[in-house]
User: Fold these one by one.
Assistant:
Number 1:
Amino acid sequence: MRTEDVLAATATGLWRWDNGAGTVTLDAEAARLLELPSAPGVFRESEVRSRFHPVDWNEILGVISLAVAEGTLAEARLRIMDERGRVLRTVRSRSKPVPGGEDRKDYVLIGTLQEVAEPQPGTTGAHTPITGDWRRSREAFLLDAGRALAEAGSTTEVLRVAYSLSMPGFSPDGLAVFGVEGERLTIVGQHGHSLGDESPFSDMPLETDYPATEVIRTGRAIYLPTPDDYRTRYPATWPLVRRFGRRSWAFLPLIVSGRTMGTWMAGFRHPVSFSPDERSVLTTVARMLAQALARAGAADTERELSLGLQRSMMPSLGPDIPGMTVAARYVPTGGGLQVGGDWYDLIPLPSGRIALVIGDVQGHDVRAAGLMGQLRIALRAYASEGHRPDAVLSRASRFLSGLTDPLEDDGAAARFATCLYAEADPETGVLEIARAGHPDPVVATADGTAVVRQTEGGLPLGIEADADYPTTRVVLEAGQTIMLCTDGLIETGGHDLATGWVRLRPILERHTGDLEKLADALVQAVHGPTSHYTTGPLADRREDDVAVLLLRREAPVTHPPAPRRTALTIAQAEPERISVARRQLRELLHDWADPDQVDAAVLLLSEMATNVLVHTDGDALMVAQAIGVPGERCLRVDMSDGSDELPHKRRPGEMASSGRGLVLMEMLAHRWGVDPRGAGKSIWFELNEAEEPSLPDLD
């Protein structure tokens, strides 16, 4: 008896579908099931396709593609329609796809067709790939899984998402992701097992007779529907897995760019037949999981590289400095490698002093980070040789200008760097500061008054090989804090130097205690939600690198709080610095009880400074300090110059444009005077916060 006759007796037909040739060969029974003439023959592909329900045809294409990829049978249910579009019957197809030529897209499908009865409504028949809510649930699940895996930013997050996936109808209770290191199998992560359960599988040779290793060797999925299947195919490793009490297993390759990077294992405590639909879901999830792990692995590597660069380039603050406290922060930009051109440093000097350095190399890329590292080493070398701050920056500028080409490889101008170098004496609190195009430091008193300390400066490093960098002396009194920062702390968020300082000043005035908390608050003010002016969920604002270095001279417990003090040199060639002096004095007196007294002090300061610039040939040195507790303070302002000529009181006419300086002193100041000082003199005045000046009789 022929095979065809035996199959026909059980309502089973044979077919051979040649995808490349576009023909389908049917026996008589297969032709009858497809509602074609009941005789053996060769039919056009389009003629056979017209008998399938359109939805089922799209479904079978995915099933065939999965079977071709895995080398397994393609099984599906197909609804057969007549010429009017009515469904006549449902047939089940079980076929083996065989490659049909050099083109991988061509195949020959050889198998059987058999009529099956559809389950009646209300019965518990198995889900099919062509009807019911299961398919819609599957599609929704795959969309959610794809979105969640795409949003995972690290390997840990990818594994957490994979463990939380709830597959429609057949959710696994145990998952494991295996990787490869050399010639050995490793476990990247697992879920649903107790601590230590992964030990036998965490370091396994790839030659081991184990499903995960075979998947890596062959690149094909392995499905084990029953414990007998597992025990029969893998007797050597069956004793290791039987204790978990699972009934079915699926091992799928994690393939990226044609390379098998690992295996994904899904274990089930309930029997799973691994129908084509279930295998399709598992295969799709495995592909998405592989892509997500590849992206996360690259991100993890980049993040680790960034952290390594930060650790190697950002110094530790070293041992404690007697009488001083130091805090520092570095925050890179949010894009690309988390490292850029900003840096800070703390350098012990041979003289027992300490050097504080902060700088910013142009750019936020690896090139900027490399130049920053080289420049930092050069500055350390020049400082350790004992050079003064101006000489350190001059040598650093020459070094950087020789290190960078006139034009970069991309045609851009050579890189430059801003820098501030301060040499501090812990015993006296004196800081010698040299500045190369960098933002000025900020000095905050013990009671929270913060003032931008104007300092002399030169060009950024690397622009001129022989640039000069004048120094400025700043005395840090007990309890005072000096802040050095890069422009990222000031200008991030669309601010300029003026508005950025207005944003930071309340932070400095509010955090007068713990220096570490002050450093955190400064960064939070720039990057945290308070730096934004919008509502809703907010991400960190990282437009530029941020480096900040804080130094506080601690106040002895037995001494009273140190006075507020500020000083400024006004050169003959820079009369505009009088306005800088007025601004510094207003900042020093920001909480003075009487605003009229503040206006009077600023007016007297202007008169004294203008008198020096007009009537002498030298520079003016302004020193202002406020002593005492709020409400009972005394302000003293000294203006020194190098001339021995003493001022004298005049009686200006009604239309005179000068000669009123000393008259204003007598009217507005509580006390004033002129003190000779060697080669030069100092004119001064005092104002008491708690009293009004007594007006003299001018008649």
Number 2:
Amino acid sequence: MNEPDFQRINRRLTVFSAFIFFVLAVYLFQLFSMQIIRGAQFRKQSQTISQRSERIPAQRGEIFDRNANIPMVLNTNTFAVTVTPGEIARDELPTVMTRLANILHIPVSDVEKKLPASVRRSFQSVEIRSNIPYEVITALAENIDELPGVSWHSKPMRNYVETRSFSHILGYVGDITKEELKTFYNKGYTANSSIGKAGIEKYYDELLRGEDGSEYRTVDAKGRLIESGTAVIPPKMGNNLILTIDRKIQELVEDALGERIGAAVVLKPATGEVLALVSYPYFDPNLFLNDNGNELYAKLLHDTRNPLLNRAVNASYPPASTFKIVMSTAILAEKAFPPDKKVLCAGEVDYGERIFRCHIRRPGHGYLDLRNALAQSCDIYYWTVCRDNLGIDKMVEYIRSFGYGKSVEIDLPSQADGLVPNPVWKERRFHEKWLGGDTMNMAIGQGFMLASPMQVANMVAMVVNSGVIFKPHLLKEVRAPGTNELVFEKKPEILQQSDVPREVFAQVRSDMRYMITNGTAQVPLHNTVVQIAGKTGTAEVGRKDHWHSWMAAYGPYNAPPEDAVVVVVLVEAQNTWEWWAPYATNIIFQGIFANQTYEEAVEALGRKRFASVGRTRQE
């Protein structure tokens, strides 16, 4: 080998050695980086890959009434059955599903729906059925050798201690739907989450739901469980809610309304706290937690009485003569007509090719001033004064100032806005001009005018508070589970404020009291325990001789607003007609201020009085 060849080979060896050294250096640097610099990161990833997590559902917070002594809603532990399909041999899966369905007493198709082909090789557990009784769990345990991949665990479930009229307040929970999951996925909800579907359960779901825990289990490369490695992050229970509802008053109001389709509200006007909220018919939310819950829900949906509807806040009715409270306020504030000047009521009036008849037919009430027109609920007085002296524009202005035609903003998932018609609305809706007859109907809370019982309660609260309506609310406090530490306290919030002079509201309160002592409610609202002020109402609906019965009142009269309560009762025209709303209202006031049950209040007021409740139209 000559000298040039040797040098050439030597250069090649040098380049090759340098390349080997470079590769080795890169390898050693990468190894150093993986083990030292990024070692913690890779150890965490390897741990994650070798683990499977199981969700441990959190218990929802409990719900109490304002006295916070006995829960109205709590949790009970039941069992849920799960299947890990990857632990079942492919050829054994149909047999296991059949055996499991037989023990659970459900169709095999229900199990097959839970275990579609896409998950049958997965080692993630799938919940098949919850709310399983202990006897079924025992049967599963006895046959566990023939049920590979089948397991069970404890699962909290809602228990509604108070049902009946509490159902529309509390609501209920159910499994989250695909549509709900799309909306709430970013808030930590999963496909296995339960979620509030109605009432307080829905409105305050995020406060009640708590935080799910996790159980991490170490698995092998095929996802099979390695028994020695388990870590648990415990769940956190949701917050407890203290409501403004008084359980005793709620039951009193429920009994006073009875099995009459309608609604009733008891409100603290000085704060907006709702002491009672009753809607009949009601339902039992515990039924939805059964295996056939969907069927029972569908049955309620098709019930013509609509028991799922919260009539107190989510239904609208003509407010009828209770509306004359607003019109009296407007007449006085605008000085549209002298309050002591009298209008002749002859029982009927001919206007626009139509005869408008007062509820007292000929010869009518005779000559009435404003106070006596309210007391006797004279339609002709309000028809005449509102049409000729107040006018529709001013009427609408005052009606809206009392909160009609918009949400009451109560803390429930849905509520009716009602309707305040005006000439523009009628033109758009019916392509017809507003007529004097429309103004007359509006003046007595009829025609197109619609309001919920809660809106009528707010109207009375406005008068009691001399021009302020506070947002009605059901939440009083939020407290931490276990420690009972105060997390949040609801403060009164102004919903509506009026610039009507305080002396005008004082006069309206006086006239409302006069209506009880000298007017149409003199007999049904006679009470020696508490002085009541208010207004009756009878709304014509649909067929002849069908009326809603209204009563809107507060008491004690002349007490500071913080000592008063507002009571509104509506009995729908679906019931056989009886003038029950004012009688029910008196029972409620008696029960509240004498601290009596329904039966005790009826006895104290005189049971015979309620045997002769009017069954012909009365205002």
Number 3:
Amino acid sequence: MNEHVGNGTVFRTTQLEDAAGEGHNPTDNRTMGEIIAARFSRRDFLRGSLAATAIAATVSPLALVAADEAKAQSASGSRFDFTEVEAGVDETHHVAEGYDADVLLRWGDGIFPDSPEFDPTAQTPDAQNRQFGYNNDYVGYVPIDGSSEHGLLVVNHEYTNDHLMFPGIVTVDGDKLVVAEADENQVNVEMAAHGGSVVEIRKEGGKWQMVKDGANNRRVTAETEMELTGPAAGDPRMQTNADPTGRKVFGTFNNCAGGVTPWGTYVMAEENFHGYFMGELAADHREARNYERYGVPDATYAWGKFHDRFDVSKEPNEPNRFGWIVEVDVEDPNSVPKKRTAMGRFKHEGAESIVNGDGRVVFYLGDDERFDYVYKFVTVGTYNADDRAANMDLLAEGTLYVAKFAEDGTVAWLPLTFGEGPLTAENGFESQADVLVETRLAADFLEATKMDRPEDIQPNGSNGRVYVMLTNNTKREEPNPANPRVDNAFGHIIEIAEDGGDFAATTGKWEILLKCGDPSVAEVGATFSTETTKNGWFGMPDNCAIDSEGRLWVATDGMSPKKTGRTDGLFAVDTEGEARGTSKLFFRVPVGAEMCGPLLLPDMQTAFVAVQHPADGGEDWEGFGRPSYYEDPSTRWPDFKDDMPVRPSLIAITKQGGGKIA
């Protein structure tokens, strides 16, 4: 079906990725904004004053030593000394002076010796299966022999923009655009462009190169065979015509952020899975309550027209097989990826982990939708650093918790365990499988705190804290202590210290590190330090990284020129000492793009960043007053060739002449 649209076009894939809907949380649970407002209602929260607070007393002695060292280093200023990039908007990327930002992998680049050359006018699923996928998001690195100069790069491919991928999708009809749905071949190309890539890379002469004949190079796509594990595996709600056992799934998609486990596996987080399903479900169907809470079906993509499993009227259980964390053994290119149902089903943003003091592994998980929740997962088993094989099923069993933030600055982690509290048959849960398939509903009953789009969450082993990125929520009408602003257009960052420095603890303390936005606009209420320049402030925090020195890097999503006069970028943020709350711009993306990744290697001499959906939304750019699409994009980055479309790409940043990124 064709869609006629005017110059105000926002393409459906853009809307899905922007989480532009109202949210699907119908509960009266307190929102984080209400809690923050109550907590700080009697405090004079001066702009720029972000002192370390009571949470410092909750971290472990080792973490306190690390924090004291960091404070000593930063007492006279920021721990970052690069020359800041000037914020702005144009067709290309920019990096701090003295650094190189080299394109390492583009959408369509071959990653095997027999990969065909990229031909954007004659794409096929077979070719795309042998090429780097679309819209690179999470970036991870698994070292080979412990090296920071030779390893496996793992990259998520979150979603596809057909209006930028394929010629002829968008045509001009007078003063309107006609947007066609993808045909069957294009749908199959899209399915092959989703998922992830595993690519061997090596640093030679100070520059990174792909190793095309790497033994472990691999594509994971929307059709890769996978195994379901954990409490929901084999449950009747997971069974389909294609898989009566409920234990085998084909594919993964909308893989946003992710993680690399301590034992060197790659975990992919399935986020906006609801957009891939179409059809109708009877109001009295077993899954009606479940799917309403997740927004299924949304029909962003046309996959259900050619593949029955994406039509809920034909395969009503298929959506239950998505929304999980997927674990991939990158050391075996023939291994079957595993969907770890013990970790819960929701719109996962990421899955970053840390080994706790008792050996258990703790993963922090965000559910990226307005008014949804923050989670963590604690394994039952313990990590064995000397036996990789002993760790390979640690994610099959554990306890999933959801966060409830209180206005006194404490946080409680509530277990999502069948039979405990309200998680019983009376409320529609017959087993632990039900609790996990309907994780959101289970968390609703526990009265978890409704958040402003929880995205990446990073534990920091250097200072014992946990950093929660909350991107924004323009639908919020009532504040709470942990989400303090109504119409929260710019988002904020929360810092958690688990009690006793124990990441597996069920209680902790929380504080706001930053309320984001332009600090020169008083009504925005941003709280960057006064040392932050006009180039250094940001909004919409999304992905983040903790480097090997314990420093925080934040990538943004949504700083369009119309909203902020600048593009997204990578920002270095001080969290300790007098410089706490200071931010500096290190890298900025071309027009229409989102900043993803980021990743700093252990030797601190390389930063990898992913430039996602360049040219999308480029109509916001001053002087570019119409929608951006394949034939007429706002930029042709990174190739800048008339016969080549705009291409999402992965970039390697290194210091000129070598040395650490400072």
